[in-house]
Design a protein that fits this description.
Elements: H1 8-15, E1 23-24, H2 42-45, H3 54-62, E2 67-70, H4 73-79, E3 88-93, H5 97-105, E4 109-114, H6 118-121, E5 127-131, H7 143-154, E6 160-163, E7 184-189, E8 202-205, H8 208-218, H9 225-236, H10 238-261, E9 268-270, E10 273-277, H11 281-290, E11 293-294, E12 296-298, E13 303-307, H12 312-327, H13 329-333
Parallel strand pairs: 1-11, 3-4, 3-5, 5-6, 6-7
Antiparallel strand pairs: 2-8, 7-8, 9-10, 10-13, 12-13
Helix pairs in contact: 3-9, 4-5
């Protein structure tokens, strides 16, 4: 199993700090997620049904013609490689590691492709997997660029997979509206922007024939009834979505300014997180953790990702910890 952010219980053990004393900035999940109301008891008593309006709500929100609801986009990431014969697949690097892991496990020849080298590598690939905006770097691509790459791949039967888990703050740049095109697969999630990671609800936007194959592979009832009930209403709540987009953009700018103020200049990111390349990232991550602030650390390249604090007291705590860390003579030298 690959490691991910949000391993708070493990941090409790590793650093002997009680669960309630942590500031968890390791996931990139909106800490002020959609306010879930009471779920009807009937949702627990019946098997999930496809005609509950969730697909329609998702289609309206994403602008996609055909959609499959899955148990988080992770379910699709693991299953999609099994729908294709062995081929040469490029996966963005650095990027969400589960993509390369899943394609390799299914027997494909995986090439890790840096953001600046996609154009150069494309002729050597059958298919390409991108994260847009990228996790953890935050790099994004224009719709026209992605459409051009898709056309090149689709011309010889390949596919372009675009993971848009972090795109909701800039929904107008999504590729979901083009997902009816053969060989274009767009993955969406309620985990990040909506802050509903625990519900495990994601969506695959693609041609209907591919979605049928994926549905058969995954089997029935992949998402629980209560989760479907919550997801439908979150997708329909336009007022909350509008206010949250602006709020997250403001908080993202505030996090950028705070890190910069303490000599930690972000190298990338999006509204939900900031990413910094640091030669001794592991040491910095550990020092922050010793003070009860959990970040996400990466080894290649050495870097750290900071998510957003949830409230003013958490912002103040982060500022105090950063001030303490940066003024430490030994630790400042490691920067």
């Amino acid at each position: 199993m690959l490691e991910h952010g949000g391993r708070l219980q493990q941090a409790v053990v590793d650093y002997s700090i009680a669960l309630d004393n942590w500031l968890d900035l390791s996931t990139g999940i909106n800490p002020k997620g959609w306010p879930v109301p009471s779920v009807p008891a009937s949702s627990w008593l019946r098997l999930p049904e496809d005609n509950d309006g969730l697909e329609q709500a998702a289609g309206d929100y994403y602008g996609a013609e055909d959609i499959l609801v899955v148990a988080g986009s992770q379910a699709a990431i693991q299953a999609l490689p099994n729908l294709y014969p062995t081929q040469r697949v490029g996966v963005l690097n650095p990027g969400y590691a589960e993509h390369a892991h899943a394609w390799r496990r299914a027997g494909h020849d995986v090439t890790m492709v840096e953001e600046c080298a996609v154009e150069e590598q494309l002729p050597n690939l059958d298919s390409l997997v991108l994260i847009h905006p990228n996790n953890p770097t935050g790099a994004s691509f224009s719709q026209q660029q992605l459409l051009t790459w898709h056309e090149q791949l689709a011309s010889h039967g390949g596919c372009l997979v675009v993971d848009e888990a972090f795109i909701d703050c800039t929904n107008e740049t999504s590729m979901a509206v083009y997902s009816a095109r053969r060989g274009l697969i767009v993955l969406r999630s309620l985990g990040k922007f909506f802050g509903l990671a625990g519900a495990r609800v994601g969506f695959v936007c693609a041609q209907a024939t591919l979605l049928t194959q994926l549905r058969l592979l995954l089997g029935p009832w992949t998402v629980s009834g209560p989760a479907r009930w919550v997801a439908k209403r979150a997708l329909e709540d336009r007022a909350w979505q509008h206010a949250t987009r602006q709020g997250l953009k403001d908080d993202g700018a505030r996090l950028d300014a705070l890190l910069t103020q303490h000599k930690l200049l972000p190298d990338g990111g999006c509204a939900l997180f900031k990413w910094l390349q640091l030669p001794r990232a592991q040491e910095i991550h550990q020092r922050l953790a010793q003070m009860g602030v959990l970040t996400r650390v990466f080894s290649t390249p050495p870097s750290i990702r900071f998510g957003l604090p949830a409230n003013e007291s958490q912002w103040q705590r982060l500022e105090e910890v950063l001030a303490n860390v940066i003024t430490d003579e030994l630790f400042e030298a490691s920067l």
